[in-house]
Each structure stands twice: as C-alpha cells, then as structure tokens.
Amino acid sequence: MRTGTSQRDDQRQTAQQRRKELLEAADRVVLRDGPEASMNAIAAEAGITKPILYRHFGDKGGLYRALAKRHTDALLASLRAALDAPADDRRQRVEATLDTYLAAIEARPQVYRFLMHPADHGQQEPEQSFDVGHHSAPLLRRLGEELATVIAERVELGPGGDEVARVWGHGIVGMMHAAGDWWLRDRPCARGQLVHHLTDLLWGRLSLADDRVGAPGF
Amino acid sequence: MRTGTSQRDDQRQTAQQRRKELLEAADRVVLRDGPEASMNAIAAEAGITKPILYRHFGDKGGLYRALAKRHTDALLASLRAALDAPADDRRQRVEATLDTYLAAIEARPQVYRFLMHPADHGQQEPEQSFDVGHHSAPLLRRLGEELATVIAERVELGPGGDEVARVWGHGIVGMMHAAGDWWLRDRPCARGQLVHHLTDLLWGRLSLADDRVGAPGF
DNA sequence: ACGTGCTTGTTACCTGCGGTAACAGCAGTC
DNA sequence: GACTGCTGTTACCGCAGGTAACAAGCACGT
Question: Which residue intervals are the DNA-binding region (chains A, B) (predicted)?
Fold first, then answer.
C-alpha cells in the first residue's frame, strides 16, 4: 500500500527517468547518424516505437530542442567557468574563453554540428507567420545574450553601454563561431594560434597595421 | 530551314532561357514560402510539373544552389564595390562595407534568410561520409575567403600574414553575420549605430575600456 | 472480486515530400 | 517516312513525420 499521492509521484518520477533514457538514446543516434536521424531510428535505438517518442516530446522539434538544451547548458557552464576563472588581465580572460569554446567544438564536433544546425528543430513561435531571420541557431543567440550581460556588468562603457554590450556580445560570439567553424573544417593552424589571431583582431590590430605598399588603400 | 548547327544552338538558347524562367519562378516561391518550398509548388508556379525541374537541376540541391549563386554573386559584387570605393581612411572603408551588408539584408530579409539557411541545399561532397562542420552556409565561407584575400592583399601583416588574414576574414564575416542576424530580428537600434558599435569593437575599444567599479575583473 | 483511470506500449494507417520510370507529342534532320 | 532530341505528362516508389485506435499492466475505490 502507498500513501496518497505516491502513485502519481512514482509515475512522474519514472516518466522523468524514461524521458532521460529516451534522450540518451536519441543522443547516441544523432551523434552517430547526424541531425537527419529519423524518429524511427531513434525509437528503435531506445527499444520502443515512434508514438512513445511523440507522447514524450510532442514532435521532432521538441525532442531536438530537449536534446540541444542539455548540450547547450553544458557548453554554457564551461564557458562561464572560463569567464569567471582568475586571470591576470582582460586579454588573458578573453583568450581563455575563446580557447574553451574552441576546445569544446574540437573535442565533440558532432555535438557542435548538431547544435549549430538550424535545420528545423521546429521552435518557431506562432507570431509573424513568415518571419525573417529565425536562422541563427538558438545556441548562438543564447551565447550572444549571455556574453552581452557579462560585458554590460563588468565593463564600463559609459552612457548607452548596454546597447554597445549587446552588439559586442553577439558580434564576438559570431566571430568565434564563424572562425571556429572554418578552423574545424580546414585546420589551418593550431588552436592556440587561432585564439591569438582572434584576440589580436579584438584588440584592434587591424586598425594599427599599415597599408601594403603598392596596394589600393584599406 | 536552318543552317547546320542552328538547331542545337537554338535549343541550347531556349534551354538556357527556360532555365532562367524556372529560376525566377523558384525565386518567387522561395521568397514567398521560405526555403521549405516544395518542388511541386515551384513547378506549379512555373506552370509545369516536377520532372522538368529535375531534368534541369538534377535535384533540389541543384536548384537551390543555382538560386543561391545568383543572390550570392549579387551581394558579393555590392560588397566588393563598397570595399573598393574611395574612402578617407580604413575605418571609413570598414564602416561602408558593414553598412552595405546590413543594408542588403535589411532590404531583402527573405533572400538573406534563404542564403543563410544551410538546411540541406545538398552540395555535400562525397568525401568523409559523416563529416563535421558542413554547417556554415556556403555564403559565409565565400564571404570569409573573399575578405581574407582582400586583407592579405592590402594590409601589411608581417610574416605569417596570410594565416592572420584568413582568420580575420572569417572572424569579421562571422561577427557581421551574427550581429546582423540579431539586429534584423530585434531591431534594437538604427543601422548606423550598429555599424558604429561593430567598428568600435574591431578598433579595439573593448581592450581600452575600464573595469566597472564593484565588478569582478574582466 | 470488479470495474475505473492512468500510463505504456503496440500495429496500422494517413499525408506529403523528394525523386523516378514510362510514355506522348512535336520540332527538325537524313 | 524513320530517327533523334527535346518538352511535357501521368503515375508511381520509398520514406519521412505524425496520428488514430486499440491492447495490456497496475494501483485504486467500492
């Protein structure tokens, strides 16, 4: 015999557990087959059939969003740690954060690919039926907003600083992302080199360099 | 009656023309319905049926790549023009280029969305079946490479400058893209403001700002 | 003991997509 | 007139996402 609500609690608990198991199975499949993995394949990996997946996650977008959230949270946590770690100066802090991101995508490129691939994942809000934008991976937006608040909190930017911080947050994240994506594919140099060059860019080295002789001005 | 090769020439000409018409129809549909437009819908818009599309473009990826190429070329040309326009100094040149890009995505957000949406478009090379990366829109890579060569050609970066230029090219393009994407959606400020803030970032203002009082260091 | 309610699981189906035969008509060429 | 090469069609395949409709197990109230 059991106390009043214990059955529902138990059910809810096992439901949560089931959900976790399903997510892990989905994870395995997605990491093996890429983001185009079919619901059938995922269900088979979990040892069940499609409708159960749909009962738990609504639709494919729901599943993928749940999946993405876990990885996003993990990545975000490690980035925050890098951002909060003791550092001698700002440049060192920025380098550490960039390096943490790049190390993460280097270590688990398939996770990275899944997170960045905006292919559907559903998630469109019903507002403005045709929309615009909606392209950027949710991860990128989240990272941008996150960095924006950190900058706004910690850096003195004068009046209108919040707006500047938001622009910079999204801009820096985009820089990191695009450079990382390109680097991951072409591997033109060591990670440390990439970090160094990017930080140089943020530190204004472009504005300090001379024009090349014989070239049209830049 | 016609001269020797005139028939083939004629056919080729009308085929090219047909292709152009089909592309224009596809353009209309994609801009109306978004990148998920079905081949049936496109065929219907063109007043024909599916197999003809497939004869002309092979598969959906082929059609989309042909479509993307036109818009990409156009955007690239206008960016090159901005980059080559007379300017007083480097900062002005960078601002003009950023502004040109942002004006373009502001003016035709649906085109922009289509170009950036990496959702398939086919185009995967047969190499490395599961790959990695492959996410970034072709447009972004192309812009990054393009900017890289311009920087390498025109800016004196010392030994290893080519590597630096490539990193910067992709980094700057990524910054522009992410900030533009966010701005296009949220419209937090005027275009000129965004350009100004981004250029400040590239000019190293982040490295010059003070820590905020009472905040952990940054 | 018996039905009730809830969850888990199934099979079997619908719709719509990308993609592909297979065939019909209609130039111009030999 | 037969042949070729194009444009166009209808009708289909396979597979994806998604959804009934129904069966079984388990804890409850009576």
Answer: 38-57
